[in-house]
Amino acid sequence: MALPVSAILGDLADALGERGVAVLSAPPGTGKSTLVPLALAAAPWLGDGRVLVLEPRRLAARAVARRLAQLSGEPVGRRVGHRMRGDTMVSEATVVEVVTEGVLTRMAVADPGLEGVGAVIFDEFHERSLDADLGLALCLEARTALRPDLRLLVMSATLDIDGVAGVLATAATDGGVVPVVEVMGRTHPVDVRWVPPPPRPAGRRAGEREADHEAAVADVVRRALAEVPVGDVLVFLPGAREIRRVAQRLGGAPAAVLPLHGSLPPADQDRALAPDPHGRRKVVLATTIAQTSLTIEGVTVVVDSGYTRVARFDPRRGLGGLHTQRVSRAAATQRAGRAGRLGPGVCYRLWSEVEHHHLAAADLPEMATADLASLALDLARWGDPGGDQLVWLDPPPPPALAAARDLLARLSLVDDRGRPTAEGLAVARLGLHPRLGHAVVAATARGHGGLACDLAALLEQRDGGAAGSGADVRERLAGLRAPGRARDEARRLRRRSGVGGTPGTGDTNAAGAVLARAWPDRVARRRDGGSGRYLLASGAGAVLAPGDPLAGHELLVAVDVDRPPGGGDARIRLAAPVDEADLVGTEDVAVVRWDPRQGEVRARRERHYGALVLASGPLAAPPAGSEVAALLEGVAQLGLAVLAWTPATSGWRDRVAFLHRAVGPPWPDVGDDALVAALADWLGPALVSAGARRRADLVRVDLGPALGTLLAWPLPRRLGELAPTHLPVPSGRSVRVDYGGEQPVLAVRLQECFGWTETPRVADGTVPVVIHLLSPAGRPLAVTADLASFWAGPYRQVRGEMRGRYPKHNWPEDPLAEPPAPPRRRRS
């Protein structure tokens, strides 16, 4: 029976020949991965070029290449070949080459024109990996600037067609029209059954909750085997760790239980894909690797745990790692569809229908969430460190790209202009994450190359290798002795680095020293004895699982950390102990700081590694000026009220503040914020003169001369003229002016002001003084800035009220004709 995509092969090839770019939207099972590459290989416009087929994973690349070779009637490596890191089967006869996405990136960086390549097919593009997005951007640049004959085809099961077509339009021939071909699949109904696990008891820890969920998955698998009597069962789990544990729980099940994840040896992967040789039903425990890229014949039942594991990076905290989260609705639909490939199927979902509606609609592209260090190194080698010249479907987020470029600089993989250094180029040739590549290159130079290669091979696996009793990465190195992708990768790296030996053997005590070169920001120091809480050199907090043996070590390198969704300390999943002597970049510094608890300046010599204080001791001779600077910081924290203010200094400040408001420059701002900002200028010298180091010493500091330094000549003399401290009143007394409010105030007894009609003014006569006229007892009777108006009006009411209360005092009918009376002296 012809597959659905067969009907459009000719039109698709013609569209690519005419426009140069195209989009093919076709669901799984329609034949796009196996029929389209061979059809394009036969297109007349290809000439002597090759067709590159990009697959998002190694397992899919091998499977697609094998199927294409079968259809061609030849073994893999002849007309159809595959190329991936450490596993290449191509020849001069190869026309269709299936590659993993990272291989395309390396090919494009090494040869921007992709000479010899006639067409590039991006298969399963909806997965939106970093390498796929970068590969498409590089190919678009190649087609636009160097190779107008290079054809580009984007294929996917579920895709933002408009968005992809819009990007491809930048490289389309003749006006940017992008052909979009859609193929409808043959779908079979899938009966979705909602089986949420029972409620968990309150107070369960993270590990206990995971175990509960895995037990529920195993129970549903046994139920599915009983309820659906025919067909194989495909179970989706977040990662290899969960697969191992669920497999243990399924011991004795009436089926062959087989794992399927990217870290398995190819033979084990093939065993999971092929029918059981003994005719038994299969239960395939898989990661998202089986979501869309592979066809597993015989599956009629899907059990979906509802979780997936994705890369997450927090550029603000510098933390990245794998994060377990709920699947999206789009991913859940793809998973369920695996049960309906051959006929009607059943999908068991371990969540409720209500919960389903609250899931995210779709997964975010890896570009939006992942660590961009590898992408940043590729861009540096391409010659565009910021990626500004490329056309992106989704551009790299600036904070994450900035963090990645900063990491490359700290690892000395790029220079100050963002260009790759010699070490950066050496790291890129290894095909590892820049952290791991740097560790291998640095460790090889110090005689630990074999161990570094083993660690790199182990840590490249999404789950860090075989299970161990805790987070100690050294315990997992022994797993490299067994056949598998990690051992093959370790051998490849050892050959590439020129070191011998057998993977998984040898002394592992230097593991921490090796890893500290790759993760200098993840060196962690214990916060308190034995609790498992650590502080990372980046400044973030991290914690080991309760009871982990590594908690007994003072220093660790936390190579795999996962920040929990609710925030708080990151969880350390993999780490190795490290000695302080193995840390590169420690710094001895003199630290003089204000101690708010003791209320004094503390001077100490500390050894720093990032945010970590590795050692501390008294500092006998602090650097000049450092103690004063620390005490000034203390004053800033405590506030200006901690200083020894007197009525004279407070009054001086009020007068200057008044002139700053009334006149402006050159009279300075002497508000709290301004004085605190300028503490070093006006208070610092006074602290030196007083020999102050503690809060108690501040009472000895004379603020008068210190504040006086804020006024340049002739302002000190003008201060007395513009804002006098006292003003004469008609009684002959000189009365203090209060400048503490919005306007200056003169408080004087009413009888001292008889005959006074002209309101006094300050600031060169521009600001009237507000007169507070007081009773014989010193209480306010009236407030005025216009004495003449007061005597003519309000005085009569005041006189009527006060004559009876104070009969011994003069309350004349005509206050302007009455001589002012000096205040009476109190009897002794």
Care to describe what's here?
- The protein is α/β, with parallel strands linked by helices and about 850 residues long.
- The protein is built from 28 helices and 31 strands.
- The strands form seven sheets. It has an eight-stranded mixed β-sheet with strand order 4-3-5-2-6-7-1-8, with helices on both faces. Strands 9-16-13-10-12-11 form a six-stranded parallel β-sheet, with helices on both faces.
- The protein is elongated and about 130 Å long.
- The N and C termini lie far apart (about 125 Å).
Amino- and carboxy-terminal Cα gap:
125 Å
Radius of gyration: 40 Å
> Main beta sheet: strand number and arrangement?
8 strands, mixed
Query: If helices are DSSP runs of H or I spanning 4 or more residues, what is the number of helices?
Result: 28
Helix content: 25-40%
What structural category do the secondary elements indicate? alpha/beta
Q: Pick out the low-confidence regions.
A: none
Spatial arrangement of strands, main beta sheet: 4-3-5-2-6-7-1-8
Number of strands: 31
What is the molecular shape?
Answer: elongated
Mean pLDDT: 90
How would you name the oligomeric state of the polypeptide chains in this document? Answer: single chain
What is the percentage of strand-forming residues? 15-25%
Brief summary of the model shown:
This protein is an alpha/beta fold and 828 residues long. It contains 28 helices and 31 strands. 44% of the residues are buried.
